[in-house]
Amino acid sequence: MSDDVVCNSGMVPINLNSKEAQQLVEKLFGLSVIELKSLVSYDDKNYHVTVSSSENPLIPDLWKHGYVLKIMNSVDSRNIPFVEAQNELMIFLNENNVSTPRPVKNVDGSYHSILEVSLEEGGSVSYVVRLLTYQPGLLLKDVKPSSALFYSIGLFAANLDLKMKEFSHEGFSSRRTSWSLECLPQVRSHLFVLKDEDKLGIVNEIIEQFEENVISRLETLQKGPIHGDLNEQNIIVEKTESDYEMCSIIDFGDSHVSAYLFELSILMCYLLMLTQSADEGRDVVAGYSYLLKLPEDELKLLKVCICGRLVQSLVLGLYFYSKNPSNTYILCTQEEGWKLLKKLWQIDSDTLHTLWCSGINSIREN
After folding, report:
1. In the chain, what's the furthest Cα-to-Cα distance?
2. DSSP conformational letter for 364
3. Is the separation of the CB atoms in 5 and 177 below 8 Å?
4. What is the pLDDT of residues 210-247, one digit of tens each?
């Protein structure tokens, strides 16, 4: 498995100002730019672009919400089959009533372009450039969470996974990154970033239990294509009469074939971080299980998998920050992440299992 794992530690950051980004949009896509605003991102370069007109016959109707100019990081840009897989997946999902960004064709009729940048020390590096429709709505991180919202998110995630099950592409066949949950044990090589002995002790315990209880039975877990990064920055919600509900999902850069248990665990990791409480996990599990029911023995692994994702987010965040200290966005989960990790790890696994699965029983009774 390690031969297929992509580690983004060797990426070359792109130095691009707003004027140069605007010129890319105009040259590659034939659009007249009104405004271009930088968006926060982990390792790609993203801009929200508002345009006034199109000289590209392949874009006859402008998307009223604008577009996202996405310049992929230098590591992922090497994997063109995966770039194509993402584009085709988003097209497929939109055709099957799942709202995601849609790729836009450039003036040459392709859904991606290659930008070659010369390096001062010699040589050059390539970056994949894409234009996607901007998804209207609010980021989950910017609204007050509720039980009903968490249920709708679980429901949306299960529907997404079921639709993705019907999609296949060679670009997904063997893709793994350092963020794939099954790659958690590889975090050990980055533990030098932890200076706190208590944190280090918890992390080692979690990795050991993950290896013993999850990795040991990896081949038996239910699998399919998953989004792989259902977090509060990638979930788009809209206002309803009485609450909010999930309406769209963005960023398929971590999509791959893996266990549905991991999809649910990753989702719960980030949702529970918003509330700092284990209780709302029952609403997420109930929503997901309404459409995609996981076996009881897999659901019992939720605690160690959620904590495993927290470990990835916290340790890899510190590691990548050490490589690129100008990007403070990388550290956005540190404070709340450690609080949740310590809290969850102290709760008995059976207690959490009973709590989280109680919502499933409520659905059956109704």
Report:
1. 67
2. H
3. yes
4. 999 999 999 999 999 999 999 999 999 999 998 999 99
